[in-house]
Amino acid sequence: MPKLPSWLANTMEKVISNKIYQVEVTETKMLSSNLKCVTFKGDFFDAKFIPGNEVLLRVNANEYRHYTLSGYDEANETCEVIFYLNRQGPGHHLAVNIQKGDHLKLIVDRAKVKYNEASNQHFFFGDETSLGLYESLGKKVMEEDVEYFGVLELQEENLNSVGHLKLLIDTVPSDVNAPAKNAITWMDNMHPLCWEMWQNATFYLTGRAKSVQQFKRYLKQRGVSFRQIITMPYWEIGKVGGG
């Protein structure tokens, strides 16, 4: 989201006050040295969260950052966000300092990546910034009793983080100079029968823009149709992103 003059940000919050929730941080836990899961509690009885729902947090006087909910509990009126502490970007300072007992404003936004209700197979590709989305979609898949699988390219220190989330998904080391290369190699090593079984799946590609581009190109070469691929690049080196 672009920078706003502080007076305009304040005015905007008054205009969309029905989408703003006062929340309290009730729990924080580290999934790795730079992945932090935070639970927020608020009066979410009318929020109508869906899988893939995004929220905005005001990270300073002039800027907001989008985050995808990794989960929500309507009964207990809580929701969760997984923050990637990338040590850069305006969101890092806020995320790294969030602690239990803090009170914040949370703005509910729409879901930019939506779960495909018509599909009975869902394949996820992404990186650290994709974890919240896929945790959310993975829960939906389990509720629907259909299938999901996928691969994430993660930094070495984050490779075990999916175990904390109970995500049924594989991981490969990311290579900043070769986006999606290790994930594509992982795909090439997949048994041919797997391709036959998953040829009609919905493929969700998120995270680094160049990785999304390369992985999409690979899928097209393997015969996956355009209508089966959902893309949402979150960031790229040298560009201001969601961190």
- N- to C-terminal distance: 11 Å
Secondary-structure arrangement, i.e. CATH architecture of the largest domain: 3-Layer(aba) Sandwich
The residue fraction in helices comes out at: 25-40%
- How many individual β-strands? 11
Structural class computed from helices and strand pairing: alpha/beta
Shape verdict: globular
Write down the CATH class of the largest domain.
Answer: Alpha Beta
The value of Rg in angstroms is 18 Å
Give the overall pLDDT as a whole number: 89
Main β-sheet: number of strands, strand sense, barrel status?
6 strands, antiparallel, barrel
Protein name: FAD-binding FR-type domain-containing protein
InterPro entries: FAD-bd_FR_type, Riboflavin_synthase-like_b-brl, SIP_fam
GO molecular function, one term: oxidoreductase activity
Domain FAD-binding FR-type: 18-126
Structure description:
- The protein is built from 7 helices and 11 strands.
- By secondary structure, it is α/β, with parallel strands linked by helices.
- The chain folds into 2 domains: 6-109, Elongation Factor Tu (Ef-tu), domain 3; 121-235, 3-Layer(aba) Sandwich (Rossmann fold).
- The strands form 2 sheets. It has a 6-stranded antiparallel barrel with strand order 1-2-5-4-3-6. A 5-stranded parallel β-sheet has the order 9-8-7-10-11, sandwiched between helices.
- Helix 7 (209-221) links the parallel strand 10 and strand 11.
- It is globular.
- Residues 18-126 form the FAD-binding FR-type domain.
